[in-house]
Target: Serine hydrolase
Amino acid sequence: MTLVGQVTARALMRRLAVEQSGSRVPSIVAAIVRDGRIVWQAGRGRTTGPAGPDASRVAEGGEPTPATQYRLGSITKSMVAVVVMRLRDEGLLDLADPVGRHVPEARAGEATIAQLLSHTGGLTAEPPTDWWERTPGVPAGELLGRLGPGEVKHRPGRRYHYSNAGYALLGEVVARVRKAPWLEAVRAEVLEPLGMRDTTARPRPPHATGYAVHPYADVLLTEPEHDHGAMAPAGQLWSTAGDLARWASFVAGDTGGVLEAGTLAEMREPATVDDGDAWTGGYGLGLQLARHQGRRLAGHTGSMPGFLATVWADPAEATGALFLANTTSGVGRTLLFDLLAILDEHEPRLPREWAPQAADPGLLALTGLWHWGPAPFTLRLLPDRGLSLAPVSGGGRASRFVPREDGTWLGLDGYYAGETLRVAADHLDLNSFVFTREPYDPRAPIPGGAGEWHTPNA
Model:
């Protein structure tokens, strides 16, 4: 399926082919979504190889299609996180709750729900078991018994430390609060409403076989696949390019009623960064974040033995990109960034057509210049009776506001997010700061008073 032009499709296909060939990936499938629709998708390579232990033979299976399943790995975490946020929105838990409030036998239970979601809970990266990705999982009771205080590696909240074990705890939180297995909750509350019917806990035909590619020869090793028990919320699910495209649209903002738009936006807000001052990568609440050449992306990477996957969404452009591959390592980090850049280069999005909007005369009278002390600000009307207040010089303490039923205005973002704006006849009161039409207008009730402007020694 393709809704882009032939030149664009060729450029995208070449980039995918270069990745599959240069990185020696047995098979890879990729797609781009825009405005909730798949506009391009393609596959390359072979999904399965010969049966038996002979690793000297090359893969012989069919080409990947949008219906071919691959392992999602840690993209599973984001879907578990959505259920956690639904529980929060229903008032069944608070993000500030320590996990021990919902799982009392969690001996490392001081980390909060929010900290586990953002990998700042300080828990060990991997569970105290055998290599969990390559062995059958243990039951929740056994895992909880092993996650003692010694598995807390950092003070909760101190730093970003990716923790697969933390998401095992979140899966158990979902199970306790919902009184149903985590997978049942994810299926009923996320997958089915979004139409992701090809996303399952174990593979179903057609699916790709997971391989490791020898580093010094063009031969394959079949990787194991198991039910990971209590660790399953960290990376169990399998999915297809078609289903993952729907997920990309969800992360970009097409929530399908699964989450409120504001809750999804909260998940996409940076809770921590993982590369210090560079801030090219970070984590929100269940979603990885990336900044690349002006884009702010949300999504997640995924890896399990034999599989790699990544999905990124650009909410500002309602665009997303994804890939699924059956290799333990090798796909370059820039593949999806490059695919999005190719789409922009060949078929850039046109700006939305401007059209006049109806305006309340009372609000129209508020527009124009206001002053915070001597600093000039501009107040503009936004659609749906919203307001924007921003410094004339640009940047600084700019915020948008939406009306409340009591006649006040609520800050949406920027410095005044969550704060209250009150409008009076001769001034604006923004969380005690007084804005006036003239700098320090003496006719307005300015705390501390306002004298006359003068020249020193004149």
